[in-house]
Amino acid sequence: MDCWVKTDNDPGWWFPSVRLLRSFLLLLCFFGQVEAASYHLDGRDTDVIGATYRVTVKESQTLLDIARANDVGQDEIVLANPGVDRWLPEPGSQVLIPAQYVLPDAERKGLVLNLPEMRLYYFRTPHEVQTYPVSIGRMDWKTPLGKARIVRKRKNPAWHPPESVKKEAAAKGETVPDVVPAGPDNPLGEYALRLNLPGYLIHGTNKPWGVGMRVTHGCVRLLPEDIEQLFREVKVNTQVQIVNQPVKVGWLDGVLYLEVHPPVEEHLTARGDMLRYAKEVIYKELEKHPAILIGSRVKQAIREQNGVPVAISRITDEQPMPITNPLFRRGS
């Protein structure tokens, strides 16, 4: 695998730790796949982790192969590479790996799942975080919002399909057994973390290529290698926060970053106009920390909704404009 990093002077491509990035890329190029990295947070003003980079497509590779090798989800890599065929990317071409993330606006404790980006964050401590791509529930089997906790860990779990799944199968003329034992046909994979929400699990899968899409019956599905790592780390009673944040903002070295994802379908009406929603999220942050914004980048990020963080402010000696700027008035 050929790996290279864009290093021009655009702050949207600035990397917080070149040494960490080089080490990660060397491991990736040598082994082809690595466990999720741990990111150390220097303080509350460190809201952005990781870095984007590019890899070279090899013969017979699909975008899904590249996504799994780099621990990103299917929708993530497709959105970051518009116009690239997910099944037949051009061998020798460059593919962007969207491995930079603005942390969700949530307590930095335990597990945080942000539904629109289909990504799970595990805060080992308030100053160290790991992150994994996930699949979430389809629109008719939506994953619930709110706080929960892990109540049980199970290796090689059996699957007991609920009545709702059996009814869905019956409507298609299919049957589902009462119990699916551990093994290659078990959709839970080899590890499961049960939540105190009845019927909901964080688990592995026997169909890893679907990770990073809305394909589950409401549970949270991880890649086999990721759930194995998470299972080792997470303890019973760990807090789980499930949030719905298609727009995230955060600071890194005095620069404000904006990350925008397509909203989940059932919340399209509630979110209304994404531009207005994004302005309110930015407005909330600027009330605490004024900055000089780059308006064109704000609009570009909202238009593209590709999940790649964009630097939307610049470091300057100029005094930041007061928050009374009409661009950020409610209803503007």
From TrEMBL:
Any Gene Ontology CC annotation: extracellular region
Q: In which pathway does it act?
A: Cell wall biogenesis; peptidoglycan biosynthesis
Q: Name one GO biological process term.
A: cell wall organization
Active site (catalytic residues): H203 (proton donor/acceptor), C219 (nucleophile)
Q: Which PANTHER family match?
A: L,D-TRANSPEPTIDASE, L,D-TRANSPEPTIDASE ERFK_SRFK-RELATED
The text of the family note is:
Belongs to the YkuD family.
* Protein name according to UniProt: L,D-transpeptidase
